[in-house]
Amino acid sequence: MAVDLQPSLKAPRRGARGRVVMLVDNGVHGDSRVQKQAQSAAAAGWDVILLGKLTGKEPVDTWMLGEAEVRLVRVKSRMSVQPRDLRAAPLRRPLAYSSDRTAEFRRQQVKAWRADLRVRGAALASGQTSNPLGPAAAKAWLTVPRAAAKATSRWVSLRARETRKLRGIRRTRSTALDRATTAFWLATMGERAWRRLDPGVWDFELTFGPVIDELRPDIIHANDFRMLGVGARAKLRAVAAGRDVKLVWDAHEFLPGVRSWANQRKLPAMVAYEREHAKFADTVMTVSGGLAELLQRTHKLPERPAVVLNAPEAAVTSRTTEEPVPDIRELCGVGPDTPLLVYSGLAARQRGLDIMVDALPQLPAAHAVFVASSPELPYVRNLMAKAEELGVADRVHALPYVPHWQVVPFLTGATVGVIPIHHWPNHEIALITKFFEYSHARLPLVVSDVKTMAEVTRETGQGEVFTAEDVDDYVRAVRAVLADPARYTAAYEDEGRLAGWTWEAQAKVLDEVYTRLMQGAGHGQQP
Q1: Are strands 62-65 and 68-74 parallel, antiparallel or unpaired?
Q2: Residue 368 forms beta bridges with which residues?
């Protein structure tokens, strides 16, 4: 763990109301929620240190967000692959090699053998090499090793195919044997079963734990489930050492509803992990009222979690840079009258972005733009390839993220904000970040009929709702909005609506949570 704590980190900020160590399992840069949390809490007088994960892509590993300090630590994935996955698996795939590396070596070895035989044959045929048996006998003699090499090549190819199948089995853990062993560990170990099913989470504990201990926080703010366990263990160590440390668990999603893991052991393992550590949280906060109710019921929490929405800041000017906000239309190369349909956020298949490309042949004047973490993401490249196939490539654009404080003014240049997400459990229960960003950009919306977002959109009248994954209904919704956008943007004139959907309002909730915890710990802090 190569983390050199600076002296400024070890000594609490003078006059601070308490030290808050925030934890997140990503590189911070693309996570607007944790950035706003750290910055606003520090502005309210807390000594904030935000610890994130160094992935190797970040240009620096420490920087300031206002008065908050960000530090990234490198998590070495040493327990994500278990020793048994590096050995042969005679019960699963008896013909498979022990590893992909072995299979690749054997394929190359056979290729080299056959290449060598071809060169030897060519040399004999051209007279470049003499043989005491004569050319005909030498050529006949090479028939035997050539046949052996060909047979070996087929055998190696078969074993390589079996190795790929074994890799798939290990990646998904979906066989009957895997299901049986997963059920066994869950039955015998209960909430401790993650230790056998997915010990890779220990890598976070072993990396972040010593750093947290040295920082001696008053409050640990753990974002999402992985950091819940890390924060809970740090709290227990602090209490054992005689220090009163409070733990805030900030749940961003309903873990049992996650569907994005191919490994079928991952979900039950992480649900057990979350269940084991949830009991140590002194308070819980989350992103929506629906998720708050689910968390309270699932974990039998004594009180309903506080709700801190993923809302944008009301102030659109940057606090950390004077760089101008990019012009989304200029970047797309379109004029002011071109209908520009924007999606901004995570680019993944379950977000339903294909529909925006599939619909363009029926919307001949419209352009679609995807604002994602990188235009080079495989899924984004697939969208661009689909646009090429449909003959609409000149009307599909991909742009990278802008800093979170520029998102709203950046999006104002679009015509319509699109949220085409599919029916997944976590999509049904919350208003996602882009809903609030589009609203503050005063864009009319076109959203799929996931429960919470569809209900709010219909109630406010700020957009049209379409049936998820239905291209024709999506086209209908877009046409309706483009025909009379003012009808939908009028919803933003409702007094107080956007004021409640600001980060400034959410920051007050966050500060109240911290203040209550410090008062409960006997520090007597006042807001």
Answers
A1: antiparallel
A2: 341, 396
Q: Could you count the other beta carbons within 10 Å of the beta carbon of residue 471? A: 17
Q: Give the strand order in the sheet containing 396-400.
A: 396-400, 367-372, 340-344, 416-419, 445-448, 463-466
Helix (H) or strand (E) holding 417: strand 416-419
Residue 427 vs residues 357, 371, 458, 460, 473: alpha-carbon distances, Å: 21, 19, 17, 19, 19
Q: Would you state the torsion angle of the CA atoms of residues 236, 241, 246, 248, taken in this order, to the nearest 10 degrees?
A: -40
With contact defined as beta carbons under 8 Å apart, do 107 and 157 qualify?
A: yes
CB distance 97 to 106 below 8 Å:
yes
Q: How confident is the model over 269-307, as pLDDT tens digits?
A: 999 999 999 999 999 999 999 999 999 999 999 999 999
At which residue do the structure tokens 């679609």 appear? 368
CA distances (Å), 230 to each of 205, 276, 487, in order?
5, 12, 49
Tens of pLDDT, residue by residue over 470-497, are: 999 999 999 999 999 999 999 999 878 8
Q: Could you identify the residue written with the tokens 């997944």?
A: 424
Nearest to 329 by CA among 383, 384, 401, 410: 410
How far is the C-alpha of 443 from the C-alpha of 488, rounded, in Å?
8
Angle between helix axes 266-278 and 176-189 (nearest 10 degrees) is: 10
